[in-house]
Specification:
The structure holds two protein chains of two kinds. Chain A is mainly β. In chain A, 3% of the residues lie in helices and 37% in strands. Chain A is built from three helices and 32 strands. Chain A has a four-stranded antiparallel beta sheet with strand order 1-32-31-30, with no helix packed on it. In chain A, strands 2-3-4-5 form a four-stranded antiparallel beta sheet, with no helix packed on it. Chain A is globular and about 90 Å long. The two termini of chain A are 29 Å apart. The N terminus of chain A is likely disordered. Chain B has eight helices and no strands. In chain B, helix 3 packs antiparallel against helix 4 and helix 5 packs across helix 8. Chain B is elongated, with a radius of gyration of 20 Å. In chain B, 29% of the residues are buried. About 44% of the residues of chain B have low confidence. The chains are: A mainly beta, B mainly alpha. At the A-B interface, strand 15 and helix 3 of A face helix 1, helix 2, helix 3 and helix 4 of B.
């Protein structure tokens, strides 16, 4: 694996205003094949290592978007977060069916400390609530997923989906306006053709930047059940959409037809014991995709083998640990998210209590397992009673696949370094939201004496859940959705 | 979590359940069978709640149904291994509620099928091709609804009678259904012995058998649906009128 050049070096390199410990090379200098590790960053963070158990790397608050009100409007609850391929754009979808896109500001040479901030670039209503009169059902306008398309020209394209309908949106900039038309006036009124005595060539004049979003395709009526995933193929021409029982393959240009590639609906619904929970295309092999199930299994399918991919090529399942068996074992094994690594060699799954990293070449068990909030294992009955046990947490990789991130309760989120096996718990809160303030690691006390600054399991707020997080494709910038607020954190700079 | 349009009259009940579930979590001394009973009750309550929502969550329903089946299987195995002198509560549960639980799960999953999958999957078929099938399927839904409602009531009914330490004691069965206008359901099709028998069960079985084949729109089944279209009109009038 070729080490990725540390792109972040361009952002914070060179300054050197903080003394670098003698003998340690700055992390942005070319190293022998060392992937980005949290520990490597310590050189820049002013000798890291200090503060709480083994946290060499330091995250800082950058921005928070959203209302401060205690009263949260249901429609404002963020339901998906996604960076685009370059990381310059950050899209969020909410329960009200709106999409808000933030754009990273260009680096300002005169203010090197102000790293590129994200500001609102475009806002539009993607989906509206619908009522299906035939089935007497209300179709929620909540945006379940947003996926960007790779940029091919000046415009940006993204797919957004609710429970039933996927839409392709084009976001384009307009900063010029044509003036001097022959057939119409400046205010648009048609000119009387008999009054026109001379022809003129319209000229382009600059205008205030306007960002327009327009729906280019609407992919509807292909899903009976609720869509939980969409994934753009590496061929950039097709994409898949998955609901509880079926996965469909679409061509981006064709809206009136989709090809059903997976169907797990039994002939007799009474025999239904398993549903599809997530699906994703392989980042490099356009014929390969995976889908996860409510039974904690992942199936890898090759579209070349047959038209209907009911037979998997690979089947990933970890044998159950009999000592931890409980009434809720199956429920907590249900996979809520599956993500391929950027390299395409690994995939990561999130179930209720853990994150697992799988090597695609090994089907019988994951290569790494990370406990997100094991202290909840003794609370499963209460969590089942209040339905929290069904919460669907997402997970994400960093650009170099060396670290993973996922959310938890009480507005906590967790980061794991795969190389050093270190982990850290941070909190997205208004209290720690001073500009460039370093985030303090949090700790949950599981029993016995509670130390200062620790929080006990029973004090956790289960209404403050972080389900959606995103990591910038190359830099150490993370976006964390906490109910109706979007937090952006960055690594410490010189 | 409870879905739309459901009046929250269960608040006292919910408080009880919350207390019980934290007792489950914190107490090490709770006997296994009691824990299992508690989980089973919670599962069935949830399934029952989901049935009253217009569009139940398929993912959750399947997970809960699997948990119920797992507990059922466990209890079945225990009963086959144990001697005759078993705790009377569990025994009566096994005898009375096993079939009812199965039928409750079956009816819920079948219900999800009719409710959600009115249109077949579109593979290489232009979208919007689903209209012709709808009128048939809609009337199927009505029939199935009536039958399922009775089935669900039975589950709770059998619990109340057989299990004297039922955690559902505080909950009056009628309260759950108070908000539902069952006037149009009170006409036909009832199987369970606890309810007043209505039209002969053979008619029910016949109609049940024709349900699966109705989707294929065979000519034989159309007459059944035609008679119900006038009822459908009547119901539509009520819905639109209100």
């Amino acid at each position: 694996e070729t080490p990725k050049p540390p792109a972040a070096a361009a952002v914070c390199g060179g300054g050197g205003s903080d003394p670098v410990p003698a003998g340690a090379s700055p992390w942005w200098a070319p190293q022998p094949p060392a992937p980005h590790t949290l520990r490597d960053m310590a050189g820049v963070a002013g000798g890291g290592g200090g503060g709480g158990g083994g946290n060499d790397f330091q995250w800082c608050f950058s921005q928070v978007k959203g209302a401060i009100d205690e009263d949260v409007a249901e429609a404002d609850i963020i339901s998906t977060v996604e960076f685009n391929y370059s990381g310059d754009l950050l899209a969020t979808g909410d329960k009200g069916g709106r999409v808000v896109i933030f754009q990273r500001e260009q680096e300002n040479k005169s203010r090197p400390h102000s790293r590129g901030e994200y500001n609102v670039y475009s806002t539009f209503q993607s989906h509206e609530p619908e009522f299906d009169y035939l089935k007497s059902l209300e179709i929620e306008e909540k945006i379940n997923k947003i996926r960007w398309l790779p940029q091919q020209n000046a415009a940006h394209f993204l797919l957004s989906t609710n429970d039933k309908t996927i839409k392709l949106w084009k976001i384009s900039e307009r900063d010029k306006r044509a003036e001097g038309y022959n057939l119409k006036d400046e205010d648009g009124r048609l000119r009387d053709p008999f009054r026109i005595t001379a022809l003129r060539v319209p000229i382009l004049k600059p205008m205030d930047l306007m960002v327009e979003a327009s729906p280019r395709r609407i992919f509807a009526n292909a899903h009976t059940y609720h869509i939980n995933s969409i994934s753009v193929n590496s061929d950039h021409e097709t994409y898949l959409s998955a609901d509880d029982l079926r996965i469909n393959l679409w061509h981006l240009e064709i809206t009136d037809r989709s090809f059903n590639i997976v169907d797990i609906k039994p002939a007799n619904m009474e025999e239904l014991t398993e549903v599809i929970t997530a699906a994703e295309f392989h980042p490099h092999h356009c014929n390969v995709f995976v889908y996860s199930s409510s039974k904690g299994t992942i199936r890898l399918c090759d579209m070349r083998s047959s038209a209907l991919c009911d037979r998997h090529s690979k089947f990933f399942e970890e044998p159950e640990d009999p000592s931890s068996r409980s009434f809720f074992s199956e429920i907590i094994s249900s996979i809520s998210d599956v993500k391929f690594s950027h390299s395409g060699r690994y995939m990561m799954t999130r179930d209720y209590l853990s994150v697992k990293v799988w090597d695609l070449n090994m089907e019988n068990r994951p290569v790494e397992t990370y406990q997100v909030h094991e202290y909840l294992r003794s609370k499963l009955c209460s969590l089942y009673e209040n339905d929290c046990i069904f919460d669907k947490f997402e997970c994400c990789w960093n650009g170099s696949d060396s670290a993973i991130m996922t959310g938890s309760y009480n507005n906590f989120f967790r980061l794991f370094d795969r190389n050093t096996r270190r982990d850290i718990t941070l909190e997205a809160s208004r209290e720690s939201s001073k500009p460039r303030a370093i985030l303090k690691p949090r700790k949950v006390c599981t029993g016995g004496k509670r130390k200062k600054d620790e929080i006990s399991v029973d004090s956790l707020d289960f209404n403050k859940k972080i389900l959606h997080t995103a990591w910038h494709p190359t830099d150490n910038i993370i976006a964390v959705a906490a109910t109706n607020n979007l937090y952006i954190f960055q690594d410490k700079i010189n | 979590m409870l879905g739309r349009g459901l009046k929250r009259k269960l608040s006292d009940y919910e408080e009880n359940m919350a207390g019980l579930s934290s007792a489950f979590d914190s107490s090490r001394n709770l006997p296994y069978s009691l824990k299992r009973q508690l989980v089973l009750n919670m599962c069935l309550t949830k399934l029952q709640t989901y049935k009253m929502v217009v569009e139940p969550n398929l993912h959750r329903s399947v997970l809960i149904a699997n948990t119920v089946r797992q507990i059922q299987e466990e209890m079945r195995q225990e009963s086959s291994q144990q001697p005759v002198n078993v705790c009377p509560i569990e025994n009566s549960l096994l005898m009375v509620s096993d079939d009812d639980m199965s039928s409750a799960i079956s009816s819920i999953l079948k219900d999800l099928d009719f409710m959600e999958d009115i249109s077949p999957p579109t593979s290489l078929v232009p979208a919007g091709d689903d209209e012709p099938k709808s009128p048939e399927s809609t009337c199927l839904k009505l029939e199935d609804d009536r039958q399922d409602l009775k089935g669900a009531e039975c589950v709770f009914g059998s619990f109340e009678i057989s299990n004297s330490t039922s955690y559902l004691k505080d909950l009056a069965i009628d309260d759950i259904f108070e908000d539902i206008d069952t006037s149009m359901y009170d006409s036909d099709f009832c199987v369970p012995p606890l309810m007043t028998p209505r039209p002969p069960s053979s008619a029910t079985e016949e109609t049940l058998k024709t349900f699966p084949s109705c989707n294929s729109s065979s000519a034989n089944n159309i007459p059944i649906c035609r008679t119900d279209l006038s009822e459908l009109d009547h119901i539509m009038e009520i819905l639109v009128g209100s």
